[in-house]
Amino acid sequence: MSANYWESTQRRHWQFTKEQLATMRQKLEEENADLVRMFPLPQQRHLNIYFNQQLIRLAKRLAIRQQSMATAQVYMKRYYSKIEIRRTNPYLVVATAIYLACKMEESPQHIRLIVTEARQMWQDLLTIDTSKLGECEFMMISEMSSQLIVHQPYRTITALRTELAIPEDDVQLAKLVINDHFMTDMPLIYAPHTIAFVAILLALVLRPNNSAPGQNASGSAAAAGLAAAQAALTQAQARVGQSSLSDTGTTDGKEKHSDSRVTKLQRFAAWLAESNVDITAMVDATQEIISFYECYEQYNDKLTREQINRFVKARSLDK
Description:
This protein is mainly alpha-helical. It has helices at 9-13, 18-31, 33-38, 44-62, 66-80, 90-104, 111-121, 130-143, 154-160, 168-181, 192-206, 219-238, 259-274, 279-296, 301-314. The longest helix has 20 residues, at 219-238. It is globular, with a radius of gyration of 21 Å.
């Protein structure tokens, strides 16, 4: 097991650029052109939202820890970067990812329990037994080349909360942002510590407006959050090598920013300026998560579910 992210298989084999990821998906669609034409699907982010919801539903029935749920979502993203979704039963993949992630995170669930709960949840969409789940597990491990260790952003927040004097409310809000990022491609693009820093930053800029991340963040709140976050990052980038920041560049007219909140943002921006953090990556990741919050407002659960279930039924993947 690699305790060092920089030497891990995650960094060496499972971190891509946006262009690389788009090319991989385009290749899968071209290789499965007939299926793609017959069974159109929503955009990738809407698929991610739906799979996240299904995984959470099953995980709650099994009382699975957040760390295992997070790892399961990364496994699904890796698997579907190699396999065209229309060739699989996504509900079987969800159950398998949870089963495998629990084993890897040292909180194993009995295979029969997962099979029973999955069968009850998706009665009309999944005929599952232990042999099918075991076969899917083998395929998933094979497609990931047995590279199963996942470094998560939660660890960075836990390690830095004292050094950065982050209060508990902000820690919890940052963790919610991390939970949300699993509904994007960010785990396949950015380093886990970069995602953690973005989550801390958004916790600091969203809290003064009483805005929670995820589906509760309106487009205007998201835009304001992005402006404030980018301003802080711009200041940090401009002051690299300096010991302090005189201004965080918070958005004009935001009177709700308390003095203590501005001080926290200043302190975090100063810390970023003095560190070796890739601020350019942070800017890009911040835009990505804010864009996702805006996209969430257009998510149609009924349409997404119908389009997925259509190809599962039509291709007899539920048998």
